[in-house]
Design a protein that fits this description.
With 94 residues, this protein is α+β, with helices and mostly antiparallel strands. It has one domain (7-93). It contains three helices and six strands; from the N terminus they run βββααββαβ. The strands form two sheets. The protein has a four-stranded mixed sheet. A two-stranded antiparallel sheet has the order 1-2. β1 (7-9) and β2 form a beta hairpin. Keywords: Plasmid.
Length: 94
Amino acid sequence: MNCKMDSVLPGATYCEILTIDMQHILGRHNETEAFEEWRFISQVSSYANLNNDVGHIYELIVSMAINHSGVPDLLRPAFRRAREFGYKYIKSKK
C-alpha cells in the first residue's frame, strides 16, 4: 500500500485512519439527525466538520484510543475492523 506517512492527526498518518462513507451504510440521505448511527458518531467524535458552507458535507472523527460502548449494529463491522487492523481513528463522512 502506498501511503503518505505525514502525521495528519495526533499520532496518526493517512494509513491509520479508516474512512467510512455513511451513504454506503445508510443509503443516500440529507437529514443526519434522523439516524441512530449519526447521533452515536456525533456523541463520541473528537472532531466534527459540519455545515461548512458546502452543503450537506459532514466529517466526524472518532478516536479509537477510547473503548466505545453502545456502537449501533450497522457500525459494528467498521469499529471491529478498525480495532483488528490497528486504525487510530475512524473518519465518518457524508
